[in-house]
Design a protein that fits this description.
This protein is α+β, with helices and mostly antiparallel strands and about 150 residues long. It has a single domain, classed as Gcn5-related N-acetyltransferase (GNAT) (Aminopeptidase, 3-Layer(aba) Sandwich). The protein contains 4 helices and 5 strands; from the N terminus they run E-H-H-E-E-E-H-E-H. A 5-stranded mixed beta sheet has the order 1-2-3-4-5. It is globular.
Amino acid sequence: MYMLKRLSIDDKEEIKAVFTGVFTKEPWCDDWSDQKQLDLYICDLVGQSYSLTYGLYDETEELIGISLGYIKHWYTSTEYIINELCIKTEIQGTGAGTYFISAIEKAIKELGLKQIFLLTDSNVPAYEFYKKNGFVESETCVAFSKFI
């Protein structure tokens, strides 16, 4: 039914299409109209030696989900830090995302990684999705930002 595949910078155009197809719509409404900025962002996430990117393909071999992140060696374990994860909007709610997370867990375990870490907003559907799939909210980690 679904197939997990490790992606690379060679898959950039396919990745961009899925990424913008999801994150430019509700509830995120991100403005990725600046193609140069989009290319830089995707290259930052996918084109590094420590990048770890997965794609979820359906039975027609269409890319329907992406996970963009990197491997981080930390004192407690080696982790998969997910910067962006999404399933095409029209497929959300069908179980594809749960399959994707499960397949990613299996794949990173085979690589010797012990943990997945990610951030999401608490006011978007992804928050409940992650909780439903066994992710635990950190009680001590907070995100800070400062525009300068």
